[in-house]
Structure formats: C-alpha cells, structure tokens
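Hi C.,

You asked whether I'd gotten around to modeling the 160-residue construct. I have! Everything is below, sequence then structure, no commentary in between.
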Amino acid sequence: MNQQDYMFLTTWFLPARVETVWEELTRPERWPKWWGGLLSVRRIEEGDVLGIGAVRRFTWVGWLPYLVTVNLRVTQKERPRLIVSQASGSLEGVGTWRLEPAVGGTTATYEWNVRTTNPVMNALGVVCKPLFSWNHNVVMDRGLEGLTEWLTSEAREGET
C-alpha cells in the first residue's frame, strides 16, 4: 500500500477568550453549524467524565469532490489549552489543538500528522499530494471563517 504521510500546522486567530474557543472545540456535534464542508459529526463513544476516550465520526468534503471520514478518539485534554485525538478511518494519525491567549482573542494551533488509508488516495497520492494538501488548507480556512463568524454572531446565543 502506498500510504502518503501528511504533516499540517494551521494557526487561527479567533476573536474570543480561550475558554470560549475551548467550549466550541470540545463540542464537535455543533461544528457543522459553523464549519463549511463538515457534513456530519456522529457520536460513537462517550468517553469518561473529562471526555477522554470519546469517539466522534467526522465526514468532510473540501473543494475537491471526495469525502473523508475519520473517527477521532480523544486521548488527552488539558482544559482550556490542549486536545489530542487519535484518528482512524480514511486517515490515521494524531491531531492536536493548542489554545493560547492572545491580544484581542485566542491563537488556536492545529497540528495534523496523518497518513492516508483510502486506496484511491494512496494510489493518487504520489501525484496528487500537493492538491490534497491544498484541499486540506481550504477546509481549514472554511473552519476559521465559520468559527470567527460564529463567535462574533448572535447565532450562538441560546446554544447549550
């Protein structure tokens, strides 16, 4: 199998306190409300009282017309600064959110170290790796745009 390794580092500036950003990132069932391209989030396992061991199934579509379905199992949480998840499915590897206070808001950094498991992505990866990387960046840009709008709008008022 010609699995391709990908290492992404994405940094977002968000106009909200760290605790507010933490609340949104730890409620992934709400993400499709603000993250364009995230088609669904399905709860697979609950995890413990801190959310360690929780598993959610995410289905994404980027600009390119293919779906990526990934299960993310939370392996570490340090409120309100760190969330680490183990990925399995179309991609396998580790995703890490790091949150830091910044002037006027929060810096959220996402490190995504994964390899492809999908046979089509594996076959095309040698040639299409730059295109797949670009598609990932499009998805992340849509997340930043959506979460920024969500955090600054009244749409989230009344959400629990």
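If it helps when you're writing up: The mean pLDDT is 93.

Thanks,
B.
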